[in-house]
């Protein structure tokens, strides 16, 4: 699936759109800049439960650079995320290469 800023459907997704689609999270924020969409934690807090350790299917909030936040979905052995540099949604195996700021889970 292609990367598209503010993408919310099969035409393209960004990291927020990916998390929203995968976990059916509504409403989905729009209009935030590519860098510094600092409301991500509050958006996740309102829809999911924060947890201390990640399990498969959890959403991770990551710090990919100064003032830049990113969401991904932990698979248990890798991270599915919308990769701007590659221009598509990908799965990266192994631990995330960025610091994890928080982890959220849908109550099961």
UniProtKB/TrEMBL annotation:
InterPro entries linked: NLP_P60_dom, Papain-like_cys_pep_sf
Keyword Membrane assigned: no
GO biological process: proteolysis
Name of protein: NlpC/P60 domain-containing protein
PROSITE patterns, per the entry: NLPC_P60 (PS51935)
Domain of life: Bacteria
Membrane-crossing segments per the record: none
Record keyword Translocase present: no
Domain NlpC/P60 residues, every copy: 1-108
GO molecular function: cysteine-type peptidase activity
Gene3D superfamilies: endopeptidase domain like (from Nostoc punctiforme)
SUPFAM superfamilies: Cysteine proteinases
Family: Belongs to the peptidase C40 family.
Organism whose genome encodes this protein: Sphingomonas metalli
Signal peptide: none
UniProt keywords, alphabetically: Hydrolase, Protease, Thiol protease
